[in-house]
C-alpha cells in the first residue's frame, strides 16, 4: 500500500493490530501536528487513496484507482494548510474510503459501498459478517479512537474537511465551497455571516445531513456539545498549491472571525484550546 498523502508530514502515528493491513501499511490513522493548541480540531476522513495489498485493489478498474470515489482529492492538502495556519491538530485516515468510509457508521451501506456514483467496487460485493467486522475493527475503530482521544484533550470546535467532484452523474455542480451542519448550526451559520473573498460559500451544499454525511459531526461534536462544521470544497479548486492556499485563507478567516464572535456570546466549544489541553500532552 502506497503511503497516504500525509506521509511526508510530521505526525504521531497511532498503531493498531491488523489482519488486513500489513506491518508496513499500518497504522490506519495518523494525527498530524498533535501538539497543536489552536481553536479547532480537524478531521479528514477521506484523506488517502491507499488500498491494502491484501484486498487486491478491491478489483477496481485502473482508471478508477485515483478517482474521487476512492478518496477526496485535495482534502488532505487543504486540511494540513488549515492546520498549519491555525495551529490545530489534524486526524486523518490513511486508508481509502472504499475500504471503509470513516464518515459512516458500520450499519450504513455506504461504509463499504459496492458502487460509488458510476464506479463499481467488486471487492466490496458480498462481504460476509466476518469480513465487514474486520474492516470495522481495523479501520473505523482506530480512527474513532484517535479522534476521540484528541477531542478529549482539546477544547476546540470540530472541523471536518472534504472535497467533492465538479461533475456528479454527468451533471456539473456550481457550488464552490459548502458549509454543512447537523443539528447544531451555530458555527456554519456564523461562517456564512463572516464569509468574504473570491470563492463563494453555500450552506448545506452540495450535501446536507439528510444525505447521511454528518456522522463524524454527530458522533464526536454534537454528542459533546461542541461547535462544529463540515467543509466541502469542489476538488478542481484544490488542484494545486496556490488554489489550496486561497481556499485555506478564506476558510481560516471565516473560522477565526466566527469562533471569536461565538466566544463573546458564551457558546461552548469556543474556549482557547490551550486552556483545555493539559500541559505537555498532545495526541
Q: What do the pLDDT scores average to?
A: 89
**Which strand order spans the largest sheet, edge to edge or round the barrel?**
1-2-4-3-7-12-10-11
**The biggest beta sheet, please?**
8 strands, mixed
Q: Assign a percent range to the helix content.
A: 25-40%
Helix and strand run = EEEHEEEHEEEEHEHEHH
Q: What is the terminal separation in angstroms?
A: 25 Å
Can you lay out the helices and strands and say which pair or pack?
Elements: E1 11-14, E2 29-32, E3 40-44, H1 75-86, E4 90-93, E5 115-116, E6 119-120, H2 129-153, E7 157-164, E8 167-168, E9 171-172, E10 177-180, H3 186-193, E11 201-203, H4 215-221, E12 228-234, H5 241-264, H6 273-276
Parallel strand pairs: 3-4, 3-7, 7-12, 10-11
Antiparallel strand pairs: 1-2, 2-4, 5-6, 8-9, 10-12
Helix pairs in contact: 1-5, 3-5
Structural write-up:
With 283 residues, the protein is an alpha/beta fold. 28% of the residues lie in helices and 17% in strands. The chain has helices at 75-86, 129-153, 186-193, 215-221, 241-264, 273-276; strands at residues 11-14, 29-32, 40-44, 90-93, 115-116, 119-120, 157-164, 167-168, 171-172, 177-180, 201-203, 228-234. The protein has an 8-stranded mixed sheet with strand order 1-2-4-3-7-12-10-11, with helices on both faces. Strands 5-6 form a two-stranded antiparallel ribbon. Helix 3 links the parallel strand 10 and strand 11. The radius of gyration is 18 Å and the shape is globular.
Amino acid at each position: 500500500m502506497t503511503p497516504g498523502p500525509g506521509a511526508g508530514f510530521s505526525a504521531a502515528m497511532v498503531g493498531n493490530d491488523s489482519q488486513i493491513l500489513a506491518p508496513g501499511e499500518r497504522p490506519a490513522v495518523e494525527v498530524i501536528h498533535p501538539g497543536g493548541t489552536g481553536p479547532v480540531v480537524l478531521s479528514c476522513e477521506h484523506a488517502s487513496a491507499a488500498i491494502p495489498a491484501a484486498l487486491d485493489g478491491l478489483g477496481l478498474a485502473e482508471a478508477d484507482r485515483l478517482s474521487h470515489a476512492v478518496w477526496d482529492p485535495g482534502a488532505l492538502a487543504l486540511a494540513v494548510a488549515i492546520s498549519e495556519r491555525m495551529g490545530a491538530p489534524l486526524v486523518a485516515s490513511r486508508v481509502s474510503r472504499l475500504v471503509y468510509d470513516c464518515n459512516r457508521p458500520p450499519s450504513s451501506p455506504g461504509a463499504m459501498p459496492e458502487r460509488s456514483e458510476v464506479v463499481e467496487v467488486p471487492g466490496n460485493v458480498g462481504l460476509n459478517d466476518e469480513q465487514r467486522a474486520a474492516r470495522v475493527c481495523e479501520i473505523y475503530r482506530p480512527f474513532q479512537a484517535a479522534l476521540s482521544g484528541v477531542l478529549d484533550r482539546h477544547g476546540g470546535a470540530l472541523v471536518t474537511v472534504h472535497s467533492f467532484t465538479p461533475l456528479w452523474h454527468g451533471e456539473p455542480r456550481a457550488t464552490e465551497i459548502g458549509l454543512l451542519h447537523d443539528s447544531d448550526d451555530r458555527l456554519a451559520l456564523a461562517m456564512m455571516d463572516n464569509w468574504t473573498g473570491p470563492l463563494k460559500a453555500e450552506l448545506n451544499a452540495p450535501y446536507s445531513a439528510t444525505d447521511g454525511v454528518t456522522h463524524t459531526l454527530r458522533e464526536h461534536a454534537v454528542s459533546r456539545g461542541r461547535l462544529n462544521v463540515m467543509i466541502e470544497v469542489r476538488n478542481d479548486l484544490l488542484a494545486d498549491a496556490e488554489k489550496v492556499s486561497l481556499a485555506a485563507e478564506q476558510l481560516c478567516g471565516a473560522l477565526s472571525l466566527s469562533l471569536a464572535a461565538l466566544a463573546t456570546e458564551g457558546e461552548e466549544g469556543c474556549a482557547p484550546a490551550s486552556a483545555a489541553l493539559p500541559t505537555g500532552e498532545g495526541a
